[in-house]
């Protein structure tokens, strides 16, 4: 079995650069958005992208995390599972862009860093040559495109691709090269299932209509979740208390944004044991997940500061730190 | 001819095993430590001296194996002493096994502990003392094996 001794040791040094709770306290104490950007720039964020463009800074950080992985793993596909959802996001964006003419600029529609270049997905959809896509994507792409062309229902198109993404995630979890990646995929699939069930129920769908939209995630019974969703958020929370995801129940009772935060916190809790791993690849995956969660927190913080939200409200939206 | 030299053959086999097994364990352990050290030094070259010490900790088992082998060679007519009988040769072989086997296993595990300690040092450069102590504990068992091998060989 391959070991990752050099790579993990290097990641341990890089982990020192992750933002801590004290850093987030400093950022929250910043008088305004610009001061927070300046603090991040002082911490080395942005890699010289300047302090005025927050999105450029965040993108530079995300790119830096993946560039490091590329340097450590070469052209290896070990961490592809972490990029899988981007492919499905791009497929959704491409179908809507071409068949419903969203009119948005490509950089606002597509996410970079998927396992397949966004442009390649767009071309495949445009030429209706779905054979150029991975096998798991092809059927969903055809179904979603036909559904959108026939009904013009963007939500239906979304639900077809979301379901395919979740199926791909749960399938990837079975063959993941490291347990932490499997846990990532399962946690992501479970949180997406809960989200989909609640949204579908809010849109007036019955339990029978919700079940096919959900992926087969371990520890979560699809029909029980769908039935609970039909009864409202409180009954979903009640159902979650009887599963290993009970930590999400209280957050769900509060609000959907609290639920999103709890999902990310749960992910951080699940990757935390990787801090003690020195040989296998788990810490590499944990670092990427931690970086992405950290960038999400910083984005929320900067947006909050820019919009003049109360500091306490911003603080509540911040995710747990891995560093 | 072989029967006449059977004692020295057994004794040499013991010396070879002590050197080969303990040395191989050390090579694996030091190699693991070296890779972890290189990972840390890529980002923090200033930690060179500290990570070098941690890398070298699993190297001692190879030296212990060599030491036992030298003492055996000094008693069986190679570097001194007289050629042993077949029975005595077997006793030399048995005496070499503790450092050979325990050296191999302890060096590999000490290498893993060193790798973990190098990671600890990467996170907390001021924890060198603790980082060194943890893999050093594994050394205890290599020393016990060395004592058993050395005392037995010395008495033969």
CATH topology of the largest domain in chain A: Topoisomerase I, Chain A, domain 4
Share of helix of chain B, binned? over 70%
CATH topology of chain B, by name, is Four Helix Bundle (Hemerythrin (Met), subunit A)
Instruction: Kindly report the oligomeric state of this protein.
Output: heterodimer
The H/E string of chain B reads HHHHH
At the first level of CATH, the class of the largest domain in chain A is Mainly Alpha
CA distance, first residue to last residue of chain B: 24 Å
Helicity of chain A, in percent? 55-70%
Spatial gap, N to C terminus of chain A: 28 Å
**Number of helices in the DSSP assignment of chain A:** 17
Q: Can you say what the CATH homologous superfamily of chain B is?
A: lithium bound rotor ring of v- atpase
What class would the helix/strand composition of chain A place it in?
mainly alpha
CATH architectural category of chain B: Up-down Bundle
Task: Summarize this structure briefly.
The complex is a heterodimer of chains A (323) and B (156). Chain A has 323 residues and is mainly alpha-helical. Chain A contains 17 helices and no strands.
Name a few traits of the molecule:
heterodimer, A: 323 residues, mainly alpha, Topoisomerase I, Chain A, domain 4, 3 domains, 67% helix, globular, B: 156 residues, Four Helix Bundle (Hemerythrin (Met), subunit A), 81% helix
General description of the model:
The complex is a heterodimer of chains A (323) and B (156). Chain A has 323 residues and is mainly α. Chain A folds into 3 domains: 1-76 and 280-323, Orthogonal Bundle (Topoisomerase I, Chain A, domain 4); 79-167; 179-272. Chain A has helices at residues 5-15, 21-29, 33-42, 54-73, 84-99, 106-109, 118-126, 135-151, 154-174, 179-202, 207-210, 222-230, 233-240, 247-254, 256-271, 282-306, 311-317. In chain A, helix 5 runs antiparallel to helix 9 (154-174). The longest helix of chain A has 25 residues, at 282-306. Chain A is globular and about 50 Å long. With 156 residues, chain B is an all-alpha fold. Chain B has a single domain (6-155), classed as Four Helix Bundle (Hemerythrin (Met), subunit A), CATH 1.20.120.610. Chain B has 5 helices and no strands. Chain B has helices at 6-43, 48-56, 60-73, 86-123, 128-155. The radius of gyration of chain B is 18 Å and the shape is elongated. The two termini of chain B are 24 Å apart. The mean pLDDT of chain B is 94. Chain A binds chain B through residues 5-16, 276, 278-279, and chain B through 32, 35-40, 42-44, 112, 115-116, 118-119, 122-123.
